[in-house]
Specification:
The complex is a heterodimer of chains A (111) and B (113).
Chain A: E1 4-6, E2 11-14, E3 19-25, E4 32-38, E5 45-51, E6 54-58, E7 61-66, E8 71-76, E9 85-91, E10 100-101, E11 105-110
Chain B: E1 4-7, E2 10-13, E3 19-25, E4 31-38, E5 42-51, E6 54-57, E7 64-66, E8 76-78, E9 87-94, E10 103-104, E11 108-112
Classes of the chains: A mainly beta (111), B mainly beta (113).
C-alpha cells in the first residue's frame, strides 16, 4: 500500500465554488502533512503544513486531518480562476528526510 | 531574494549523451533533493543530500548521478544509462531542523532528440 494516495481528477468547478481536495494515507502514526500547489510548468510551492489532527486555516484555504479515517483534505472557499493548478498532498510518513507525494489533483476554476 | 534556481529551463539530450542539470540555493539549507515528475506519476525522489559531501539514492537513482561539493549546489547528471530521461526535473531544499518542509525550484524540462 502506498503511503499516500490521491484522486488525480481532473476537477472542474465554477468560480466561487467550494472545492474539496482529498488524500488518504496508510499509517495512523503519520503526523505531518503538506499541501503543495503547482501551476503548469512551474515548481510546486508549499501551500499548507499541518501537524497531527484538526484544522488549519489560511485565508480561503483550510487543511484538515482526520486521523481516525486517515484522511487529509484541503478546502478552498470562494474559488478563483487563479486557483487553477495541480494540488499535491505529501507526508514524510515515517522518514526524517523523504517526502512521499500523492499524484496530484488537477483543478480548473472556470470564470 | 532567497530561493532556489535551476538551469537551464529546457535541455535537449542526444542519444548516448550525458547532461547535467544545475541547482543552486541561497536559503542556507543543509538538505537538497532531486525529483523527477512524469505526467500522472507524481514526484519521485532520485537523490537527496543531507550534508555537504554526502548523498543517498532515492527511489529511482538508476541512470543518474549527483555531487554535493558545496552547500549551495547540488547538480544532477543524467547519464546515457537512463533510457527514458524525458521528464520534468525538480530540485528542492530544506532546513535540517524542519526537513519535512521542502521548497522547490522552477524545474528543468529535459527532452530527448
Amino acid at each position: 500500500q502506498k503511503e499516500v494516495e490521491q484522486d488525480p481528477g481532473p476537477l472542474s468547478v465554477p468560480e466561487g465554488a467550494i472545492v474539496s481536495l482529498n488524500c488518504t494515507y496508510s499509517n495512523s502514526a503519520f503526523q505531518y502533512f503538506m499541501w503543495y500547489r503547482q501551476y503548469s510548468r512551474k515548481g510546486p510551492e508549499l501551500l499548507m503544513y499541518t501537524y497531527s489532527s484538526g484544522n488549519k486555516e489560511d485565508g480561503r484555504f483550510t487543511a484538515q486531518v482526520d486521523k481516525s479515517s486517515k484522511y487529509i483534505s484541503l478546502f478552498i472557499r470562494d474559488s478563483q480562476p487563479s486557483d487553477s493548478a495541480t494540488y499535491l498532498c505529501a507526508t514524510p510518513g515515517g522518514s526524517n528526510y523523504k517526502l512521499t507525494f500523492g499524484k496530484g489533483t488537477l483543478l480548473t476554476v472556470n470564470p | 531574494d532567497g530561493g532556489i534556481t535551476q538551469s537551464p529551463k529546457y535541455l535537449f539530450r542526444k542519444e548516448g549523451q550525458n547532461v547535467t542539470l544545475s541547482c543552486e540555493q541561497n536559503l542556507n539549507h543543509d538538505a537538497m533533493y532531486w525529483y523527477r515528475q512524469d505526467p500522472g506519476q507524481g514526484l519521485r525522489l532520485i537523490y537527496y543530500s543531507q550534508i555537504v559531501n554526502d548523498f543517498q539514492k532515492g527511489d529511482i537513482a538508476e541512470g543518474y548521478s549527483v555531487s554535493r561539493e558545496k552547500k549551495e549546489s547540488f547538480p544532477l547528471t543524467v547519464t546515457s544509462a537512463q533510457k527514458n530521461p524525458t521528464a520534468f526535473y525538480l530540485c528542492a531544499s530544506s532546513s535540517a531542523r524542519v526537513q519535512e518542509t521542502q521548497y522547490f525550484g522552477p524545474g528543468t524540462r529535459l527532452l530527448v532528440l
